[in-house]
Design a protein that fits this description.
By secondary structure, the chain is mainly alpha-helical. It has one domain. Helices cover about 75% and strands about 0% of the residues. It contains 8 helices and no strands. Helix 2 runs antiparallel to helix 3. The chain is globular, with a radius of gyration of 16 Å.
């Protein structure tokens, strides 16, 4: 029971962190990843700053193209950071494939929970239109775009955190 409570507290914290970051700073890819990095202690401050800079163009469906949801991509990056052990140059094909398989599982879970994986479609369903042109920024904001995106970031961060905890538990039982 205590472990479940601790897990629920972590999940609530990561969801709130992802949502708050998107509301205040924007950039769904980096905000989802920032919540995971913070709550799981994935990197030191300098590394975190660098990774979050790199993740910024993933936002808005990859550089505001409304393609793959940046929150999904941020979650995938967090999963990669947790489960890709060691140095990249030392990785074997089996290590890469193992992380890819985890990524596919998370992708499917995100798609089932959110309903779509494309920013365009998430906005179309959630706001009634996609605001596919970056020049429609003010209309997007007035329509509640950041409320929708903050909700998606929070859910994506929570889904990724749940997934991480689940896989860690599976591995602990199998070890």
């Amino acid at each position: 029971m205590a472990k479940e409570l601790a897990s629920e507290e972590l999940l609530q914290k990561v969801e709130e962190a992802g949502s708050k970051c998107e509301r205040e700073l924007h950039g769904c890819g980096r905000c989802t990843l920032a919540a995971l990095m913070q709550c799981f202690g994935l990197a030191d401050k300098a590394s975190t700053d660098l990774v979050l800079k790199a993740a910024l163009p993933l936002s808005g469906g990859i550089a505001q193209t409304r393609n793959t949801c940046g929150a999904l991509l941020g979650g995938l990056m967090g999963i990669g950071m947790v489960f890709f052990a060691g140095k990249l140059e030392d990785a074997e094909a089996k290590d890469i494939q193992a992380v890819m398989a985890l990524g596919r599982r998370y992708y499917r879970r995100f798609e089932k929970e959110i309903g779509n994986v494309r920013c365009f479609d998430i906005r179309q369903v959630g706001l009634g239109r996609s605001f596919s042109d970056p020049d429609q920024y003010e209309a997007f904001v007035k329509a509640g775009g950041y409320d929708l995106c903050a909700s998606v970031c929070g859910k994506a961060a929570r889904l990724a955190a749940e997934f991480i905890l689940e896989v860690e538990e599976e591995r602990a039982k199998g070890a």
